[in-house]
Amino acid sequence: MTVANNSKVKILVGKPGLDGHDVGAKVVVRALMDAGFEVIYTGLRKTPSEIAQQALDEKVDVIGLSSLAGSHLPYCKKLKGLIDQYGLKEKLWLIGGCVPKKDHAELKKIGLDGIFPNGSKLEDIIVYIEKYAKMKEDA
Amino acid sequence: MDGSSSDLKEVVNESGIEIRPLYGPEDVEESGGIEFIGDPGSYPFTRGIHKEMYRKRPWTMRQYAGFGNPVDTNKRFKYLIENGQTGLNVAFDLATQTGLDSDNVLAEGEVGRVGMAIDSLRDMEIAFDGIDLEKITVSLTINGSAAILIGMYLAMAEKKGYDVSKLRGTAQNDILKEFVGRGTWIFPVEPSIKLVGDTIEYCAHNAPKYSPVSVCGYHIRESGCNPAEEIAYAFCIAKAYADEVKARGLDIDEFAGRLSYNLNIFGNLFEQVAKFRAGRGLWAKIIKEEYDAKDPRSMWLRMIAGGGGGGLTFEQPEVNIVRGAYYALISALSGTQTMALCSYDEAYTIPTEYSARISLRTMQLLMEETGLCDTVDPMAGSYYMETLTNQMRDKMEEIMTDVDVQGGVVEMIKKGELQAKVSGQAYQMQKDIDSGAFPKVGVNCYRVEEEEEHEVEFHPYNTKDAELQIESLKEIRASRDQVAVDKCLAQLKADAEAGKNVMPAIVEAVKAYVTVGEMTDTMVEIYGRYEEPIVF
Question: Full-prediction pTM beyond 0.90?
Answer without folding.
Answer: yes
